[in-house]
Write a structure and sequence with these properties.
This protein has 99 residues and is mostly helical. The protein has helices spanning 6-24, 27-48, 67-95. Helix 1 packs parallel to helix 3 (67-95).
Length: 99
């Protein structure tokens, strides 16, 4: 694993951002994000049929990673940040008084 690889550096940036966002997120923010991710998975199942999902939890604790795993972690973390950002925006719109 090359720690200067641009994909690895992007992953590190998204991971740090996700940690900061999780620390500031409410339970409702995280629940809404989980629901959106579940709907995304359901959409893909409806579109492409049931796919065998690999057990990827081990990647979160791995000490060494290959390029494909790093890219997958980067993509997943980027998606999580995006969905959490959208969830927070949607919930804040709902909570805002109408003008």
């Amino acid at each position: 694993m090359d720690k200067n690889d641009p994909v690895f550096l992007e992953f590190c940036g998204y991971w740090q951002l996700s940690e900061e966002m999780i620390a500031k997120a409410s339970k409702d923010d995280l629940a809404e994000t989980a629901r959106i991710l579940a709907m995304q998975a359901a959409h893909m199942t409806r579109k492409y049929g049931v796919q065998e999902l690999p057990d990827l939890a081990h990647l979160l604790a791995a000490t060494t990673l290959d390029d494909e795993s790093i890219a997958l972690l980067r993509d997943g973390t980027e998606a999580f940040v995006g969905f959490l950002r959208r969830s927070r925006a949607m919930l804040s719109e709902i909570d805002s008084p109408m003008q």
